[in-house]
Design a protein that fits this description.
Blueprint (H helix, E strand, L loop, with lengths): L14 H32 L18 E6 L6 H8 L18 E5 L3 H6 L7 E4 L11 E5 L16 E6 L5 E5 L15 E2 L1 E3 L7 E6 L19 E5 L4 E13 L2 E8 L9 E2 L3 E3 L3 H64 L1
Antiparallel strand pairs: 1-2, 1-4, 1-14, 2-3, 3-12, 4-5, 5-6, 5-9, 6-8, 7-12, 9-10, 10-11, 11-12, 11-13
Length: 345
């Protein structure tokens, strides 16, 4: 008599293909999780504290590491409500009802460039979030002439390169190719500003006072830290501007577009006044004092935690001692009860 050869352990259908598909799905999910962890680590590395130079004399020098600050940026009406919850806005100097928001120029790579750890062609944007020195917003002033000493004073009109040093140590130059169909900002259609390898005619910049009446007076004079200036491209004689009407969504949030072009009544509104900031001696002392206060507070907090731990340990020892004494009394009472019972018998 024939017996049924099939039972619950028999594999039917495309079982081998299904197993391969499940294994491939697991491997794909693991690769996605690894890439996401790698991306989070790289993006966090860009927000680590950056080092800026100390200028005790209050003047800019070749070789100084600076942050480029746009003190007055007036966004569109629809963007004011978006920034209101995150930033403290200031009244517009022009007397308008729209508030102004300070921004800081920074390198903003996209997700693909960040994962590949390649920042070439990464755009420069204006971030209203990060005003403290971090890796993504620190730039170095480099002389274009090899005969110029690194520590010499930077004067108005002197050509220089702005170099950004990535977290991996790569030196990239802030460049603005002449506007064309391939090299123009996506929304403003002005010259785009991005990072490129090596120095070129498109990466040469110079400082010009923002007030026209002071330009002849301050020509070839030392540039001060924090002075209101225009960052002008020497090849096109056009200033670097922060687009007030055009924002872009990046991996670090909403940031303003940065371009090169003259601002006139016929063009869209843009902020061209910038300030190059470093640490002065007073700021350095204040920062050192703040760090010492933070260390003292951390030491005090650690001492308090150790004292609390000692108190808890002492209380635990007292409780254990009380428990041992209670058990010892209980045993003595039990022995005495037994002894009385034996005597009565």
């Amino acid at each position: 008599m024939a017996r049924n050869a099939y039972h619950s352990g028999v594999r039917v259908g495309n079982w081998y293909e299904n197993r391969l598909r499940e294994e491939e799905l697991k491997m794909s999910m693991e690769r996605c999780r690894t890439a996401e962890r790698h991306f989070q680590g790289l993006s966090a590395a860009l927000l680590e504290e950056g080092e800026v130079s100390v200028c005790p004399d209050g003047l800019l020098h070749f070789g100084d590491s600076v942050i480029v600050h746009a003190p007055v940026v007036t966004p569109r009406r629809g963007q004011v409500t978006e920034y209101a919850s995150n930033f403290h806005s200031f009244p517009s100097p022009a007397g308008t009802s729209r508030p102004s928001i300070p921004c800081t120029l920074a390198v903003t790579p996209n997700r693909q460039a960040l994962i590949k750890n390649s920042y070439i062609d990464s755009p420069i944007t204006a971030s209203p979030d990060h005003h403290k020195p971090v890796i993504k917003n620190v730039f170095t002033i480099v002389p274009r002439d090899s005969h110029t000493p690194t520590s010499s004073i930077l004067c108005y009109g002197d050509p220089f390169d702005l170099v950004h040093v990535t977290s991996g140590g790569e030196r990239l130059y802030v460049t603005s190719p002449v506007g064309s169909a391939l090299h123009s900002s996506r929304m403003s259609r002005r010259q785009e500003v991005l990072l490129q390898e090596g120095s070129s005619a498109h990466s040469a910049w110079r400082l010009v006072p923002s007030q026209p009446e002071l330009r002849l007076t301050l020509q070839d004079q030392p540039a001060e830290v924090g002075a209101r200036v225009w960052l002008v491209q020497t090849m096109t004689n056009q200033p670097l501007v922060v687009e007030e009407e055009f924002v872009t969504n990046t991996i670090f949030g909403t940031e303003h577009e940065v371009s090169v072009g003259m601002v006139t009544r016929a063009t869209t509104k843009a902020a061209s006044t910038l300030a190059l900031l470093t640490w002065t001696r007073d700021e350095t002392q204040t920062r050192r004092r703040r760090e010492e206060e933070e260390e003292e507070e951390e030491r005090r907090r650690r001492d308090e935690e150790e004292e609390e731990d000692l108190k808890r340990q002492r209380m635990k020892e007292l409780e254990e001692e009380e428990e041992r004494r209670r058990r010892r009394l209980h045993r003595i009472n039990a022995i005495m009860t037994t002894a009385h019972a034996e005597i009565n018998q």
